[in-house]
């Protein structure tokens, strides 16, 4: 049997197959049916708004009376009732029109034809089919629908998942704020820090991105075929169409109004958003790699999952697969976000359709990002600090105290104390490329002309206590 003959159809993308459970929340906002539902929403809401809406205005369109509450509710129910049957029906209409937005228009027309069955013979909805898509080009509907889809996906799915992982890191940073660990710079032993402070660095970085997200604009326009309101003013010059456009976008849809566009909304807001998303992914990628290396080094121990196999041939292994999966999916997400940001801001003069097919991959970009967050969330739950290994690293690297000693020598020299010349070179001679211990440090400090307090402070230092104010830095927030 050919796999293509199996029904229901087998998913090509792992996002809709193997990982469907983890990415399914995005279907509500970034799937093709979700986009069509928003198109229906924009079209019907535009009708209600033009007719005077439910805010007591007179109609902008001569011959059209303001809708009754029941009529407005009927139109909005077209959106609310859009389910499996509606999806199939719309697909059938599009198979004839070969135009997705025109199919939505005809889908609404069919509901208007049936309005009298629900509302009675007095309703005029059936004769108002010309009001559907009034003065609109397809991109008027599409840009608003995409903005609504993406805004909801970010605010209701991706951002909460990102904040959840960030808060989990913040809790771990607070718990381990005092837990000393050896730092490595260039892969070499360096000034010690605390595990909490190192995790707090990521918390700070991620919360900055969350702040950027919270100030993100979601722009929309509804201004006709080339952005000039030409058809609007040709038909009804007495209407302030700029005001109508602005208030509809901002007050009715809750988006930010773009007053100057070609046929398409310029997509700059999308490029900005996807830039934030890609940058966030890179921070998370850095986190995944760091944790992976901490596991390899022994700073973190993993909690084995009962029944799980780490290796097909080496039974002892517990692979850091969650962090490896996160890395890979973040890279895929970044590739898509970077492509979206680069291509969506370009078009040929007024319009081409490159953005149409490109924007259909927005869901995949967020899907891979969500899959990465899912893996990071589970990965963080599966590790804990290996305090014995961390202490052993510190005890094996007393040479990291060389920085403290030579810096204290410099301060003493500046105060005028004798015998503090060439501090860097003298400490380097004692410690570089060597393994030294507590006694070596104490003996060296004893040979120097420090005042009693400084000498005692340096002599009492250990790699575990030489960590500055790392524990207090955890409290800084973005």
UniProtKB/TrEMBL annotation:
Domain Fumarate lyase N-terminal: 17-326
Stated role: Catalyzes two reactions in de novo purine nucleotide biosynthesis. Catalyzes the breakdown of 5-aminoimidazole- (N-succinylocarboxamide) ribotide (SAICAR or 2-[5-amino-1-(5-phospho-beta-D-ribosyl)imidazole-4-carboxamido]succinate) to 5-aminoimidazole-4-carboxamide ribotide (AICAR or 5-amino-1-(5-phospho-beta-D-ribosyl)imidazole-4-carboxamide) and fumarate, and of adenylosuccinate (ADS or N(6)-(1,2-dicarboxyethyl)-AMP) to adenosine monophosphate (AMP) and fumarate.
Record's keyword terms, sorted: Lyase, Purine biosynthesis
Record-given protein name: Adenylosuccinate lyase
Domain named Adenylosuccinate lyase PurB C-terminal: residues: 348-466
Pfam families per the UniProt record, alphabetical: ASL_C, Lyase_1
Domain of life of the source: Bacteria
Any GO BP: IMP biosynthetic process
Gene Ontology molecular function: N6-(1,2-dicarboxyethyl)AMP AMP-lyase (fumarate-forming) activity
